[in-house]
Structure formats: structure tokens, C-alpha cells
Amino acid sequence: MQGVNDFGRIGYGxxxxxxxxxxxxxxxxxxxxxxxxxxxxxxLEDVLKLMSGHF
Length: 55
Fold this sequence. Notes:
The chain has about 55 residues and is low in regular secondary structure. It has a domain at about 25-55. The protein contains one helix and no strands.
């Protein structure tokens, strides 16, 4: 399942570092005890709410 990215499109958009000094990305990986039922336009805030209590 893929959601809306920072480009406003569904799916992976790839890194797009700003010009200039080195840039770093921070990825978070979550292991849950259940499968979340999500639609493709589910917001990050909604995903975080649905994950609550399932870590």
C-alpha cells in the first residue's frame, strides 16, 4: 500500500535533496501487531492515530 508523498502524489517519489551542503534523511520503521486497513489517500496523521497501541 502506498500513500500520498511530499510531492502530493501517490507512491514513492525518491529523494530530492536541496542544493548546497550535504543533506541527510531520517527513516522510521515501525513493527505493528496488526495490519492497518488504509486507503491510498490516508494522511500521515491518520496513520499515526491508527498505529497507536499496536507497537
